[in-house]
């Protein structure tokens, strides 16, 4: 493919991307008469095809459509682009649909897409400073921008590299990890090395293993599974602590009790994930209490604010950061709720040396004058893989295009939308029961079985959830809280308007009535 | 940014990408008179600016050019695009330059870029089958395409999901990891769990830790640092075994001796990385011998063919796969030498259950009917992070656009280019000494000090390497082999033509003469 052909196909692709988002924006504005029509962005009924949020294909669908061996000779782009529409599109679950209310949002935006295009253009592998200084330096500056924008303390900022020439040591700093899972693994590994270094009796592997074999990491029963998986990856013990049965948040006293119990049993507590905005219900752990409990025993506290972290750009939610000054590391996913295409998980640490102590390896072929001087940051020593993409570009594009004001408006819009939905539930107490109070833009609820109905609340809630997702108009996720089956509702799509929320309310009313009528 | 504005800026960006590659393609065709002019792709001298391969900025350059806080209000795209050119471009080390001969190549291509554009458009998070069936199924099919294209045995293929309805179990299969480093960590973790399960005396954490504390992973002194780092991440011991002093490859007998020695010392060998194409010199380990040594002790063999794996599309290099039928896992980086933008590291295993045993977690909020049925693959259980991008699209676009024939021509071109360079070295034995024989498209050499010169060979080689990289015309990497400092030369750029190799030869001659004249 030469530049001329790329120009033609590239322009075609830009058109397709714009159309894709126009079609999604016009999706599923369910009519007040209960039919599932669609309306164009101009408000005029238009023949826009209905795109189910949840892919409707069956397992194995694609193997019947695509050859089982690679072609020997080149194929024209027209064959490929036709296959995208005919074979790939039906197998997409549309996270960008304005009617996607499942899991957590996965914000795309046009400046985010442009960031991916420029990143693909450069296609350098910025594993150390020299392999593309702009990769490292823009990432440092963007992490500082974000840290300030969400109110993280100065301790998490990296000093500018230029200021280093006066010999001031850099302690804290930020990096963009690929995902919250990777941020958690990195924190666990840094914490493990810190504790091993503190307790080992000599420099042998045996001494290190004697400590490692006793280490235990904590989360709560509501902590994202990434912490348990992170402990599995690191090969350390893991314990899920009980949460408050009403708020589903983890208390400091629970942590203290667990630490004391495990110490008494000969184990070594070394790490805990505290969550701002749990996956199931958006609960916020008692971070001041956890920090107090952990600091007494030198336990590393990592805050996972994967989803809720974006809301911290708004001053009215800044109180959620209480206690964060005392934690060791913090991360959130810009790719969830801050208009930035996946993947983009900024992570900050208060002391970078614990990352590099745990993850740095410098063989001869990766050494160079700039790295050895200590003047620069080599991000390969802050993360699991060696190679890295130019992820900071999309942060730069998104934040400048929207401005912090625009990002705050985006967050507030979705929280307001969740309030619209909450009010719909509250107005129908015979139909819906709120199980956990709204946390930012997340609310959980169950369906109330009519009196003398054959249904249990759990079964009915699950049946309605399944019927709604099979219907394809909207998508939501199910979870279980203390034995209670609930539906999670989380508006957050870039394209989601208030009208889509009103439509979603109608879908719930309609499908619930339908399930009950069967 | 609305669709209309995205169209305008998107088209502008497509133009910029096309220009970027046109400008790079015309770079550094050094004139035969030794001046560093440039020539357009039409062969007509054109005023194309010289773009140094190695970024010429100083540490901290960007902090002086960019505000230290995010903007409150939106900025126009014109300000952003101007900043890309003025502030970012100088900080790029141009891995896409045809004169990049350092590290290993990082192949970009236009279909690869289109793959990133479509992936950014969908922006779904395909962590399990249901969250976008096309993500999972295209990835399975692409891994099968590639496995067949490079000659991996049937044991590494995944059966199509549709064929599963007859109850045939799926054993092997492929996944696209983000990087070879991640593939190695995943293999280490799977191998660790397999050995723990085999040896633990009961189901307690204590029993598992008793085994884990004795585990030792192997690589050679030439294995990529990702294996040592992988062992650090997994928290297991690591030992680098000695290689053949001439070929730099690891022998089976060395592995047997190490296993027996470590067993005698109470350790438990469980994992080894065998390399096809080491980073320093392109050495190929004795895989049949290593497999024989390892299989006797139930040690997991993982083949890292990160760079050289791409060459296996050519029948004439298929002999490098000897013994691979007996290994447990295999990976290579399409993003190095197979025209596919970073990141794209296909990995295959012979028994998928060892991955899922080590990495699977299924909390309620991630459960769904399709996953529970066992009919489908949930790739989150085959990798470190939860979320994943739609990486298989770019494989599909690249392989169909070039065809296997086109990909083979790409590989053969670079090997032929390395032969041109090798012949240049061979013709000047008083100036250059080949240290390791050419392996595919990689050769290492040192500079020969003139008799009665003040230079040692090592110092002179390093001085020439530094001077060449500072010059900016081409970029190469230095390494050390058995105490001998060498320059690695690896043609592999998508845009690299034979003329660029001839130009590189002239640069070496010119800079060496200059260094010697000082």
Features:
homodimer; 518 residues; alpha/beta; Aspartate Aminotransferase, domain 1; Aspartate Aminotransferase, domain 2; 2 domains; four-stranded antiparallel sheet; 11 strands; 41% helix; decarboxylase (chains A, B); Aromatic-L-amino-acid decarboxylase (chains A, B); pyridoxal phosphate (chains A, B)
Describe what this molecule looks like in 3D.
The structure is a homodimer of 518-residue chains. Chain A is α/β, with parallel strands linked by helices and 518 residues long. Chain A has 2 domains: 1-54 and 93-115 and 406-518, Aspartate Aminotransferase, domain 1 (Alpha-Beta Complex), CATH 3.90.1150.170; 125-389, Type I PLP-dependent aspartate aminotransferase-like (Major domain) (Aspartate Aminotransferase, domain 2, 3-Layer(aba) Sandwich). The first copy, chain A, is built from 15 helices and 11 strands. The first copy, chain A, has helices spanning 3-25, 77-88, 110-122, 133-150, 180-199, 205-212, 225-234, 252-264, 287-295, 334-337, 353-359, 369-372, 392-426, 457-471, 498-517; strands at residues 173-177, 215-220, 237-241, 268-275, 300-304, 329-331, 345-349, 432-439, 442-447, 477-481, 484-489. In chain A, the strands form 2 sheets. In chain A, strands 1-7-6-5-4-2-3 form a 7-stranded mixed sheet, sandwiched between helices. In chain A, a hairpin with a 2-residue loop joins β8 (432-439) and β9 (442-447). In chain A, α5 packs across α7 (225-234) and α5 (180-199) packs across α11. Chain A is globular and about 70 Å long. At the A-B interface, α1, α2, α3, α4 and α5 of A face α1, α2, α3, α4 and α5 of B.
